[in-house]
Design goal:
The protein is mainly β and 352 residues long. The chain has 2 domains: 6-149, Sandwich (Immunoglobulin-like); 161-343, Immunoglobulin-like (Sandwich). The chain is built from no helices and 26 strands. The chain has strands at residues 10-15, 24-28, 34-41, 46-54, 60-62, 65-75, 82-93, 96-98, 102-108, 118-119, 123-133, 140-149, 151-152, 161-167, 171-177, 181-183, 187-197, 201-214, 221-234, 242-248, 258-261, 265-277, 282-292, 309-310, 336-340, 342-343. The strands form 6 sheets. Strands 2, 3, 6, 7, 10, 11 and 12 form a 7-stranded mixed β-sheet that branches. Strands 16, 18, 19, 21, 22, 23 and 26 form a 7-stranded mixed β-sheet that branches. The protein is elongated, with a radius of gyration of 25 Å. The termini are far apart.
């Protein structure tokens, strides 16, 4: 970025991985723009070289050149609201005059990066380097984003989820998932048992929902996005029938579960089970799951900083309040939960 279009005289290039050893990831900035960013972890150094390139026969007088490493939260529905949680600064050179292109090495050592990078609907959590060429009237500013990923250890407790739900005297089903916490490349395995069927069910589907909450108090914005949807049954089930579930998470644009980040936003994931009857009435039940990022197998453990792993905290149990139209069933720390199915239509069938 170059403020006020002064890039006609100077440009800045960030060399972060001259040996080509650091992994990169394509980050979706918006619907039409993607950016290739280097991946960093908590506790790792951020170092490299800044190349300042002048056009031929150009020179710049400056009041110093400053480099910052910044982490902040931007509220996209209020561009003026930026919450900075990390700012490391270095003065690369004292005031003077640039008459030719130059390079400057830099190093921020053992940098704590407490949160994962995130770009959502209403919020963005960024880590970036910013070079400022300080001038008397207007500065030249250049930025380069990096992607921070938080690795978690395997959870000590990972109970299965077992729930019995239904509509009184009409439908009674039991569904079970093998775990309540899944890494981003995991497979969700489960089964659905039909204990009582007196409704003409046409088909059944399961979806992964992402719910993003931003703000606090009366100014909370809730957004829900369907990440994936699968039809797992077509046709009317009978009593005693069992439907298997196998849902692969790899390949979807998922992030770890994020709770109350800087008291500004949360990102949570739910499995949404939907049954549709012949009259197109929809009955559904939502169950929260916790997602976490596992260390990749090809990463050399001996070279990793001890601070690279984020401390895995046991998630709080989800409340019975749904942030969207779901029932918000309790999270999987409990071995079984009972509750009614919710209807998306004004059905005349009573529920428990």
């Amino acid at each position: 970025m170059d403020i006020l279009g002064l890039g006609s005289k100077v440009d800045v290039e960030f060399l972060l991985d001259p040996q080509g050893q650091r992994k990169q990831i394509e980050v979706k900035i918006d619907e039409n723009k993607r950016s290739l960013q280097y991946i960093y972890y908590d506790g790792e150094d951020v170092n490299g070289t800044i190349q300042i390139k002048l056009k031929k026969n150009s020179k710049i007088e400056h009041q110093g050149i400053r480099l910052e490493f910044i982490g902040h939260v931007e509220m996209l529905n209020d561009r003026s609201t930026v919450h900075e949680f990390l700012n490391l600064s270095k003065l690369l050179t004292f005031p003077g005059e640039l008459t030719e292109s130059t390079s400057m090495d830099f190093a921020f050592q053992n940098v704590e990066k407490p949160y994962e990078s995130y770009i959502g609907i209403n919020v963005k959590l960024r880590y970036f380097l910013r070079v400022t060429i300080i001038k008397r009237f207007s500065n030249n500013v250049f930025e380069r984003d990096i992607c921070v990923q938080q690795l978690s250890q395997f959870p000590e407790i990972n109970n299965s989820i077992k729930m019995e739900v239904g509509i009184e005297d009409c439908l009674h089903i039991e569904f079970e998932y093998n775990k309540s916490k899944y890494h981003l490349k995991d497979v969700i395995v489960g089964k659905i048992y039909f204990l009582l069927v007196r409704i003409k069910i046409k088909h059944m589907e399961i979806a992964i929902l992402k719910k993003e909450n931003t703000g606090s108090g009366p100014n909370i914005y809730a957004e829900s996005e369907t990440i994936a949807k699968y039809e797992i049954m077509d046709g009317a089930p009978v009593r005693g029938e069992s439907i298997p579930i196998r849902l692969f998470l790899a390949g979807y644009d998922l992030t770890p579960t994020m709770r109350d980040i800087q008291k500004k936003f949360s990102v949570r994931y739910f499995l949404n089970l939907v049954l549709v009857d012949e009259e197109e009435r929809r009955y559904f039940k939502q169950q929260e799951i916790v997602l976490w990022r596992k260390q990749e197998k090809d990463k050399d453990k001996s070279k990793q900083s001890a601070q690279q792993y984020a401390h895995y905290e046991r998630p709080e149990a989800a409340t019975n309040k749904s942030e969207d139209n779901g029932t918000g069933a309790n999270s999987g720390e409990n071995s079984s939960v009972n509750g009614p199915l919710s209807s998306e239509n004004n059905s005349d069938i009573p529920s428990d």
